[in-house]
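Q: Start with the shorter request: fold the first protein.
A: Done. Sequence, then structure:
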Amino acid sequence: MRQLITISILFIFSISSFGQTLNFDFFNSNGKQYNTKTLNEQLENEYNAEFDEKIILLETPSLTDSLYVSQNRILDLLKAESLELIYITACLTKEHKGGYHTTIEKAKELVGENPRFRIRLLGLGANILFESNEVISKNEIEELLNN
C-alpha cells in the first residue's frame, strides 16, 4: 500500500512535464561536450559498447543550497553505474566542474522563472519522466527507475 501511495504521489509531482523533452548540451569534468538527446549514441561511439543511460538533472540556485546538498548525499548512496545513471548539475551561480554540468547560461535557461531546487529524471531521448522541487529518497529513485 505504501508503495502505491508513493508512486501516486510521485506521479502527481511529475505530471506537469511528463512527455516533454529537454534537449541541451552539457559537459563532463574534462570539458567534453555531450547532448541529452544523443547521449547514449555518443557514449556507444566513445566506448564501443551499448548504453541505456538515464539522466538525473539537478537544477539549483547554488552548490551550497540545502536541498541540492541533501539530494547529492542521497545520490551518493546509489550505484549510478549499475543503474545506468548520469547526474548533471545545472547551477545558476557556478559551474560544477567536478562532474557533469551545464554552463551557467544553460542553467538559467532550464530554471526559467523558477530559481529553486528541482530534480528531474530524463529517460531515453531526454524525455522528462519525473520532476520535483523536493528532495526524493533513494527508494523513490529506485522505484522510478524500475517503472
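Q: Next, the second protein, separately.
A: Sequence, then structure:
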Amino acid sequence: MPAGATLMEWREPNACTRKEFSHGGWIGFVIVLMIPTVGLAISAMNHNFSRGEIILALIFLIIGIVIFLREWSGPGNWVYLKEDCVSRATSRPASRTRYQNIKSCNVSHESYNGIKFSVLKFTLKTGLPASQVEKIVLPEDVNLDRVLHILRDKGVKVVESPLPS
C-alpha cells in the first residue's frame, strides 16, 4: 500500500465533547466569554468607551459563542488511520502522528447520555512538534478490534481496560 493510503476512517461522536464540557470543560468557555465582557466593564468604569473597543469586544463574544455551538452541536471530527500515521481532521492541515512516535495507546470505554464510545489516548515520545494527535474517539459502530489490530501491527503497545458491565 502507498504511504498515505487510508486503512480506516470514521467521524468522532460529539458525545465525548459534551461529556468533557459537562465535567469542567465549560470553565474555559466562560473565561473566553468573560474577556470581552471585563474589557467593556473596565472601559465603562473609566468612561472611556470607543466604538472600536465595543466592536472588538462583540466580535470576540460572537466568535466564542459560535465556537461553543460548533463544538456542542456540530458533527465530530474525522479520524483516519493511514498506512503511516493517525490523522485527525480538526482543522487544515489535519493533525498527524506517525505510529513510530506513539509509545502506547490506552483504551477506555465511556458513555454519555446513553451514547457509548471508546477513547484511545496516546502516550507520545518527547520532543515532538505541536499539533500531534493525542486522543481519538471511536463511536460504538466502529470496529474497535480492527482499529487495535492496525495499531498493534504498526508497533503501538495497546493497553486495554475491561469493558464496563
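Q: Describe the second briefly.
A: Residues 15-73 form one domain. The chain has a mean pLDDT of 81.
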